[in-house]
Recover the amino acids of this structure.
C-alpha cells in the first residue's frame, strides 16, 4: 500500500503538470517518492530501502543499491526536490506495519529473503500499475481486455474427475501398467502432507509426468494452492506436455497456458493482445506450462514486464520436470529461491526426475540451505531396480564408419550424438552407405515435422520394420520410444540414463539383449559444456563399471562429482551472498544479478518454416491488425526452428528470410523464404546461407 501510494509522488512536480497540458519535456516522476520515504525512514532504513527500490524501478526496472549512475544511492544523492514543500509536509507515512510484515518474510540476517520480499512488492506494484493504465485506456477507447480466468479452487473438482477418468481409460494389462498404477497411488497419497519441498524420483517409464500432475491436483485441493506451474528444461517438449495435459482435461484444456520463450511478452505497440498473451504477462491462468528459463529468469529479473508475474507465483505448486537439468553454475541461487518461495510464500516445490540429484544432502548446508526434501515415490532404489530395462556397455572409440557398421547389423537401433553437426554428418555417411530405414531426428526440423517423424518411428518399431535412427539428445526429453538397442556418445550420466530409458522401454525383451553402448567419438569430442559432465561419467564408470551405471549408488556418485567437487562458489553462491541486509540497511544488486543470471549462454532465435499450408495460412494473418500476435505466435510454434542469433541475421541479410508485417508485428515473425534450405530428411541448413558455426546447436 505504501509503495502504491508514493510510486507516482513525483507527479506533483509542476513540470509534470505542464506535461499533462502538452509540454513535451521529459519528467522523472519515480525518484520523488523514494526520496521522501528514505528521508522519513528514521530507525527503519530496511523497510524504506526495499520500498524505494520498487518505486525507483517501476518504469526503468529494479536498480542496484550502489555502483552506477542508475543506482539508488546516486539517484537519491543527485535528486533536487521539485515538489512544493506544503505537499511534502502533508504526507503521512507509517513504515512500522511494513517492517513487521517484512520480518515475517525473512529469516534473521537473511538478505536474500529480504530481497525476494522486495521483488514481490515490486511485482505487485508494477502489475497493478500496468493494469490500472490498461483499464484507463480501455475506458477511454471503449474496449475491454479479457483477463478473467477461473480460480483453480473453483475448477479443481472437475479437473480431478477428468484426471481420474483419463487414468482409468489407460491400458491396464502388461507388466509395467500395474506398477505405474501403484506408483501413482503412492504419490497421490502424499498430497495430504504439508506444503513445502518434495522430491519425486521415478525412473523413465514409470509415468512420473502424469503422476506429478495427479499429486498437484490433490495437493491443491487439500491446501488451497492458487495455481499449478509445470516447468520444463527443454522448449522442444513444452508443446507436447501441454498437449498431454489438454488430453487429460478435455474441453477444459483451454485453462492450460503455454508460455514459450519464443513468444516475447515485451514487444511494444502490437495491435492485438489476446487472453493467452495477457496471461503470459501475469500468469493468471490456473495451470501454466513453461520453461525453466522463463520461470527462473523472471524470478531474478529486474525489468518490470518480466517481474510482474512474481506475485502470482506465490501460493503455487511448482513442478520442476527433469530437475537434474538445472544449470550447475546457477544452482545455489535457484535452490535458494525455491527454498524462500516454499518457506515464505506458500509454494510447494516438486523436484521431479528419473535421476534425483542429492539436493537435500549435507553439502547444501555449507551454503546455508538445509533443504529437507520429502520423497513422494515409493522406494526409489527398488523402483530403479524394477524398472531397469536395459544395460550399459562400454563401446570405446567409435568413429562414424564404426557406428554405421553397428547400425547395419541392427535392423532397429538408435544412435544419439551431442551436436546437430555430428548428427547430420553421421546421417549423410549412413545414407551414402545405403542403410535401409534410416531416419534423422534433430531440432533442425520444426516441431510439427518432428512429431510426424516420431510417429513414423513408433510405427516402424511396432511393425518390426527397419528403423535406424540418428538423433541429437532431444529424444532424451520425454520422447517415448522403445528400441531394442542403442549407442550414445559420451555425455553426462543423467543423459545416458535418459537414453537408456529409450531401450526396451516397455520391457518386452530380455534385459541382457537390450544394450546402450556408450562410445567416444574421436572426431567429435564433447563440447566444453558437456566435457565436464562426460569426464565425471568416466570417473564414475571407472569406480563402478559401465554395467552398474544405472544403479542408484553410481548415479549419486556422479552427481557428487558434478556438483560438490566444484564447490558452492562455482555454483553461484556469491550471487546469493551479494544480497545483504545488515544493521545499517540493505545492499541489493538487483540489476547486476539479473544481468548475470542467464540460464542460456547463447540465446537461440526463431525462424518460421512455412512449407505447410497450416503455416502459410497463419502467415497470411500477420497483415490483419485485428488478429492478436499471441494467437499467431502460438500457432507458429509448431513450425519454428531455433537457430543461433548470428545465423538468423545472415539469413535475413542474404535474402533467405525476412520479418513479415514489421509495421504491425515488429521483428517477431522471421519467415524462411528460400525453401531449398529446408529438407524433409535433415531440416534447416542455415550454414548454406553464409553462417559457419561450431555445430553445437
Amino acid at each position: 500500500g505504501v509503495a502504491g501510494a508514493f510510486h507516482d509522488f513525483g507527479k506533483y512536480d509542476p513540470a509534470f503538470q505542464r506535461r499533462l497540458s502538452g509540454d513535451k519535456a521529459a519528467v522523472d516522476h519515480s525518484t520523488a517518492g523514494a526520496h521522501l520515504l528514505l528521508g522519513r525512514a528514521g530507525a527503519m532504513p530496511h523497510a524504506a530501502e526495499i520500498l524505494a527500490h520498487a518505486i525507483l524501478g517501476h518504469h526503468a526496472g529494479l536498480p542496484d543499491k550502489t555502483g552506477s549512475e542508475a543506482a539508488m544511492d546516486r539517484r537519491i544523492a543527485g535528486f533536487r526536490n521539485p515538489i512544493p514543500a506544503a505537499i511534502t509536509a502533508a504526507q503521512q507515512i507509517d513504515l512500522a506495519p511494513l517492517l513487521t510484515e517484512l520480518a515475517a518474510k525473512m529469516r534473521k540476517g537473511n538478505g536474500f529473503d529480504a530481497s525476494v520480499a522486495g521483488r514481490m512488492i515490486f511485482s505487485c506494484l508494477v502489475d497493478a500499475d500496468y493494469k490500472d493504465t490498461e483499464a484507463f485506456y480501455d475506458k477511454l477507447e471503449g474496449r475491454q481486455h479479457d483477463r478473467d480466468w477461473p480460480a483453480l479452487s473453483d475448477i479443481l473438482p472437475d479437473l480431478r474427475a477428468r484426471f481420474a477418468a483419463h487414468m482409468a481409460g489407460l491400458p491396464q494389462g502388461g507388466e509395467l501398467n500395474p506398477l505405474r498404477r501403484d506408483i501413482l497411488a503412492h504419490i497421490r497419497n502424499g498430497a495430504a502432507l504439508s506444503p513445502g519441498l518434495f522430491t519425486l524420483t521415478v525412473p523413465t517409464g514409470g509415468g512420473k509426468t502424469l503422476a506429478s500432475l495427479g499429486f498437484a491436483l490433490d495437493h491443491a485441493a487439500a491446501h488451497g494452492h492458487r495455481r499449478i506451474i509445470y516447468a520444463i528444461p527443454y522448449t522442444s517438449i513444452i508443446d507436447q506436455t501441454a498437449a498431454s495435459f489438454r488430453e487429460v482435461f478435455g474441453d477444459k484444456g483451454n485453462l492450460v497456458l503455454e508460455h514459450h520463450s519464443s513468444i516475447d511478452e515485451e514487444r511494444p505497440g502490437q495491435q492485438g493482445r489476446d487472453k493467452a498473451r495477457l496471461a503470459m504477462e501475469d500468469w493468471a491462468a490456473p495451470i501454466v506450462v513453461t520453461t525453466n528459463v522463463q520461470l527462473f529468469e523472471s524470478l531474478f529479473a529486474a525489468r518490470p514486464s518480466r517481474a510482474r508475474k512474481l506475485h502470482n507465483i506465490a501460493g503455487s505448486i511448482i513442478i520442476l520436470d527433469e530437475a537434474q537439468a538445472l544449470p550447475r553454475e546457477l544452482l545455489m541461487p535457484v535452490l535458494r529461491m525455491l527454498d524462500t518461495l516454499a518457506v515464505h510464500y506458500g509454494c510447494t516445490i516438486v523436484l521431479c526426475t528419473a535421476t534425483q540429484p542429492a539436493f537435500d544432502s549435507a553439502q547444501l548446508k555449507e551454503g546455508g540451505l538445509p533443504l529437507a526434501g520429502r520423497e513422494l515415490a515409493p522406494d526409489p532404489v527398488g523402483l530403479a531396480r524394477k524398472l531397469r530395462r536395459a544395460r550399459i556397455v562400454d563401446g570405446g572409440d567409435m568413429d562414424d564408419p564404426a557406428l554405421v557398421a553397428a547400425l547395419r547389423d541392427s535392423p532397429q537401433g538408435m544412435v544419439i550424438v551431442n551436436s546437430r553437426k555430428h548428427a547430420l554428418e553421421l546421417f549423410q555417411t549412413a545414407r551414402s552407405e545405403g542403410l535401409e530405414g534410416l531416419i534423422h531426428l534433430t531440432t533442425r526440423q520444426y516441431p510439427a515435422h518432428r512429431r510426424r517423424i516420431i510417429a513414423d518411428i513408433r510405427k516402424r518399431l511396432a511393425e518390426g520394420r527397419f528403423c535406424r535412427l540418428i538423433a541429437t539428445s532431444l529424444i532424451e526429453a520425454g520422447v517415448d520410444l522403445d528400441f531394442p538397442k542403442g549407442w550414445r556418445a559420451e555425455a553426462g550420466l543423467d543423459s545416458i540414463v535418459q537414453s537408456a530409458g529409450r531401450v526396451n522401454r516397455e520391457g518386452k525383451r530380455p534385459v541382457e539383449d537390450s544394450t546402450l553402448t556408450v562410445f567416444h567419438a574421436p572426431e567429435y569430442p564433447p563440447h566444453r559444456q558437456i566435457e565436464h559432465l562426460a569426464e565425471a561419467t568416466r570417473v564414475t564408470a571407472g569406480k563402478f563399471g559401465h554395467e552398474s551405471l544405472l544403479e542408484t549408488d553410481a548415479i549419486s556418485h556422479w552427481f557428487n562429482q558434478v556438483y560438490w567437487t566444484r564447490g558452492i562458489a562455482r555454483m553461484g553462491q556469491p550471487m546469493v551472498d551479494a544480497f545483504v541486509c545488515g544493521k545499517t540497511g540493505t545492499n541489493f544488486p538487483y540489476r547486476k544479478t539479473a544481468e548475470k543470471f542467464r540460464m542460456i549462454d547463447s540465446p537461440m532465435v526463431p525462424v518460421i518454416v512455412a512449407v505447410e499450408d497450416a503455416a502459410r495460412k497463419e502467415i497470411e494473418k500477420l497483415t490483419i491488425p485485428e488478429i492478436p500476435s499471441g494467437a499467431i505466435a502460438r500457432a507458429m510454434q509448431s513450425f519454428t526452428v531455433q537457430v543461433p542469433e548470428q545465423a538468423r541475421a545472415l539469413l535475413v541479410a542474404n535474402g533467405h528470410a525476412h520479418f513479415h508485417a514489421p509495421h504491425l508485428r515488429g521483428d517477431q515473425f522471421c519467415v524462411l523464404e528460400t525453401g531449398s534450405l529446408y529438407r524433409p530428411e535433415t531440416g534447416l541448413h542455415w550454414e548454406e546461407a553464409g553462417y559457419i558455426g561450431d555445430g553445437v546447436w
Residues 253 and 290 are 15 Å apart (CA to CA). The two ends are 47 Å apart (CA to CA).
